[in-house]
Design goal:
The protein is an alpha/beta fold and about 325 residues long. About 45% of the residues lie in helices and about 20% in strands. The chain folds into two domains: about 1-150 and about 315-330, Rossmann fold (3-Layer(aba) Sandwich), CATH 3.40.50.720; about 155-310, Dihydrodipicolinate Reductase, domain 2 (2-Layer Sandwich). It starts with a strand and ends with a helix.
Length: about 325
């Protein structure tokens, strides 16, 4: 059995999801010979540390009842620097303006030669090249599947499964909130504001939905795709972005009468990165409904390859994080 000591930095929905999937997949992990031992967890205010392994169920329960993970006052940055462990799971909130706490956490992990898996797209959308260089210089493994498609495999599909193929174009729906709103507007013939409120009530949209509905979230994901798949050195400022706030029920109905749906489509190739509402034929693979995400890759050898899945959700995102963790240590 290979024991991997790890920290979880950020214990919101995704961080808690990671703890839950580690607990739920113990039997499977034992079968493949990996023991993920969580030795430290930090949220924005507190931390819990145990070199023998944190009681994950107890920490999840405490977070729900008390709003904190423990009594220690160490920050995530201090844990990465001072606690002996091999892997950092970075799940702090995304900030595309400053990179947030995640940016410093990542550089600190690489400074100390720790491997890192993250769902935090902000730092990657800002300083992708610098982070990759820092990881390579330290010999750290650095995987971030969860930053682009949640449970929908996009980056690993492009890098591993389609190895040997030249990918010439990627397009798709990369934001479940926008897709839900547009789907419901068409179904109910209802205005944007009404369906946004419904999405917020159901937890699909944040109280401040700007990142989602203005296309910023999709733009950040496309930047990561552009840099990872096409070898570009892009930031979110290189993306042409139009959101969904101006779409009307009348526009959706006119499109439907002509055999189309309107979707917020992100597209990236070696010459452009673009996010905008587009007409999609109703029977097209990109015409998925509800909160689903979809990505279609055009390749030279395999033709178009399309994947669909849930692009958000704590367990769904945690599943991509766990997949990256296993990928690093299984061999």
């Amino acid at each position: 059995m290979k024991t991997i000591r790890l920290s979880i930095i950020g214990f919101g929905a995704v961080g808690q999801g990671v703890a839950k999937v580690i607990l739920d997949k113990q039997v499977y992990l034992e079968k493949i010979g990996i023991d993920f031992k969580v030795v430290a967890i930090a949220d924005s205010r507190t931390a819990v540390i145990d070199e023998d392994g944190v009681d994950l169920a107890a920490v999840i329960s405490r977070k729900k009842t008390e709003g904190t993970v423990g009594s220690e006052k160490l920050t995530g940055l201090e844990i990465i620097e001072t606690i002996d462990h091999e892997l950092v799971v970075e799940t702090t909130p995304t900030n595309i303006v400053t990179g947030g706490a995640g940016l410093g956490n990542m550089f600190m992990a690489f400074k100390h030669g720790r491997d890192l898996v993250t769902s935090n797209k902000g730092p990657l959308a800002m300083k992708y090249g610098e982070l990759i260089a820092a990881a390579e210089a330290s010999g750290s493994k650095f995987l971030f599947e969860a930053t682009v498609g949640g449970a929908m495999p996009v980056l690993n599909l492009a890098r591993d499964v389609l190895a040997g193929n030249k990918i010439t174009n990627v397009e798709g729906i990369f934001n479940g909130t926008c897709n839900y709103i547009l789907t419901r507007m068409m179904e109910e013939h209802a205005p944007y504001e009404q369906m946004l409120a419904e999405a917020q009530e159901l937890g699909y949209a944040e109280t401040d939905p700007t990142y989602d509905v203005e296309g910023i979230d999709t733009a950040c994901k496309l930047v990561i795709l552009a840099n990872c798949v096409f070898g570009m050195n892009a930031t979110h400022e290189d993306v042409t972005v139009t959101g969904i706030t101006k779409i009307t029920p009348e526009a959706l109905m006119l499109a439907q009468n002509d055999g189309y749906v309107i979707k917020l489509i992100g597209e990236v190739n070696d010459s452009r990165i673009n996010v905008a509402p587009k007409l999609v034929p109703i029977d097209h693979p990109l015409a998925v409904g509800g909160s689903l995400n979809v990505a279609s890759m055009q390749t030279d050898l395999s033709g178009p390859i399309t994947v669909t899945g849930r692009g958000a959700g704590s367990i769904e995102t945690a599943s991509a994080i766990l997949s990256d963790m296993i990928s690093i240590y299984r061999d």
